[in-house]
Amino acid sequence: MRDRVHRGRLAVLFAIVTSLMLTLLGRMWYLQITTGPEYARAATENRVRTVSLPPVRGRILDVHGRPLVTNRTRPQVSVDYMTLIHQPDRGRAVLARLAEALDRPYEEIANRARLCGQGVSRPCWPGSPYEPIIVADDVDARTALSIAERQDEFPGVGTALRPVRVYPLGTAAAHLLGYLQPASAAAGSGGGARLVGRDGLEAQYDEVLAGRPGVREIAVNSAGKVTGVLGEQDPEPGDDLVTSIDSRIQKITERALATTIAKARKRGEPADAGAAVVLEARTGRVTALASHPSYDPAVWGRDLSQQDFESLPLASNAVLGQWAPGSTWKIVSTAAAVRAGRKPGASYDCPGSYQVGGRSFRNFEGAALGRMNLHRALVVSCDTIFYRFADQMWRRDGGLDPVRRPKDPMQVMAREFGFGDRTGVDLPNEAAGRVPDRDWKKATWERTKEATCRRAKTGYPEESDRKRAAYLKALAAENCRSGGVWWAGDAANFSIGQGDVLVTPLQLARGYAALANGGKLFSPRIAKAVVGPDGTVLRKIKPPVVGKVAVSRKTLSYIRDALADVPREGTAAGAFAGFPFDRLAVAGKTGTAEAYGRQDTSWFASFAPAERPKYVVVVVVSQGGTGGSTAAPAAREIWEGIYRLPARSSARGGGGR
To answer: Cβ distance 257 to 275 under 8 Å?
Structure first.
């Protein structure tokens, strides 16, 4: 009985549920028939747009953890492009009120709010129209708050605290740090809101510093209006980059370079550019890297026109500047001569001039200095001893004999010291310098002989100086006949760092570091470690050893001992007068390189302490005069600053090469 009642109740319940389901299905069918077109139309009218959310960029720190580049939040004002263009006047009235509130010209705000495209010059917005377009990023908090409270007057205008790059050292280290620029939307990098490194460490380690952008997906209708936010993923902050740069020494180096160039100009030298490098001799780490002229990286936070951008001195003279090294090159020539059989302690004559191929090659100011060993030759920088070595090696290696394959020992030695090739420093741009040889000269002549031979006939009628024009024509005629031949005179010029030899300041510093540390050639590094936002060391960066100077430790020690006497009694003695050598023994070599059509290039390459070198300091000033008069005093100032020695105003420049 109970079973029958139970089955009866189930049947009634089933009938009720079935009836309800049929009713519901009927209504759904009705809705589908009657509202289907509306749903389809809504689906076609809505589109999904992806907006990149920029992360907080990692900091760049010096070796002691002090910030070289950091972030600071400050109020920024942005506009919603899609909201503005849907205003009756396409947002002109809103932008006019905004310009007045910001106390800026209307054209400035309107230009920054427009989209970049063909025929649109900077400033403009290179990113997505669905991203907030920053029109002012240096707004005081009171103004930003006032704008935020008057949204009825400023539809589509937003204010927010955003991180911006800050450079605590100002112009110091601007070239090695680099700068940021908006990412190219065409490159698929997320549009203009994301900034990417364009030079220096900012570019070299962009992936480390940049972090991971977040993503916001928004729905927009066919008119471009945002109808809702579909989802959002937060950005991840970038990692910090710890460098080997010592900000205190960097500032000392920058100041010494700028002061020296200013003094040279007061003396009447053009002194148009310069650089200074401080390198750890035993590790290959960069302690300071200065370039002059410099610029203030704060310009990247301003409304920079295309003309202003192009006028900035963005190239680093420390890694891209190339000059003949002059007598600083004699460490290469000395090492090559000793390996070729010359005895360091033997006596060699240093006449005022030496004949090479019928041409007289003179000492600096034609001075005849008598007989001396190689130690003394480096101290007083005798050119004629090295001219003789080069001439003898050129003849021994076959001279002009096309059958014998020349060894050119000085070129071989130069390459062992790392010259003629990029150092591999962790910066995005670097010059390779030049070690000229027979093959290089022949190849160069092949490329230029047509123009050279034409000039041998036509001369240089555009030259107003008749003597100069005659000289250039005679030179063109000689090069037309035999410009591809490596003459003994080329070898002589090579031996003292003249002719077609070119080095960068960083290359010369690396070469002197190899001399100082016993022959180890490093690929220099500025970065030391990558550290996560939580302080965890993620990766250590070590300068790799890329070569070895195959010269005996005895020979390298001999050259180091000779260079220790250069500041005491040699060509840099004037610049180091009164220096406390008992507290810091500085070894170095002056260089004065001739440059065709320009004033001499001033060099000083040094290391200290002389008995166990820790640092290498190299200074160059283009058109700065002699090495003893300009570069050496700057290096002295750097050494005094590094070791906190008392500065002596009695220091005077000398005329030594």
So the answer is: yes
Return d(Cα 116, Cα 99) in angstroms, integer: 20
Instruction: Report d(CA 574, CA 626) in Å as an integer.
Output: 12
Which range has the worst mean pLDDT, 14-18, 460-464, 519-523? 14-18
Alpha-carbon distance of 1 to 7, in angstroms, equals 10
Q: SS3 string of 444-513?
A: HHHHHHHHHHHHHHHCCCCCCCHHHHHHHHHHHHHHHHHCCCCCHHHHHHHHCCCCCCEECHHHHHHHHH
* Beta partners for residue 215, in sequence order: 52, 233
Among the listed residues 254, 269, 369, 327, the one whose alpha carbon sits nearest the alpha carbon of residue 629: 269
Nearest to 69 by CA among 256, 189, 222, 204: 204
The dihedral sign for the CA sequence 382, 384, 388, 394: positive
Give DSSP secondary structure letters for 400-447. Answer: T-SSS----HHHHHHHHTTTTS----SSS-----B---HHHHHHHHHH
**Bridge-partner residues for 431, per DSSP?**
none
Tell the burial category of 36 from Cβ atoms under 10 Å away from its Cβ (0-12, 13-18, 19+): exposed
pLDDT tens string 158-180: 888 788 899 999 999 999 999 98
CA distance 600 to 445: 26
The tens digit of pLDDT for each residue in 479-488 reads 999 889 999 9
Contact 590, 604 (CB under 8 A): yes
Single-letter amino acid code for the residue at 386:
F
DSSP string for residues in 183-224: PPGGGTS--TTSEEE-SHHHHHTHHHHH-B-EEEEEEE-TTS
CB burial of 122-145 (b: ≥16 within 10 Å; e: otherwise) equals: ebebbbbbbbbbbbbbebeeebbe
What CA–CA distance (Å, rounded) separates 221 from 225?
A: 6
d(CA 600, CA 593): 5
Tell me which residue of 286, 361, 138, 257 sits closest to 619, measured CA to CA: 257
Q: Would you call 22 helix, strand, or coil by DSSP?
A: helix
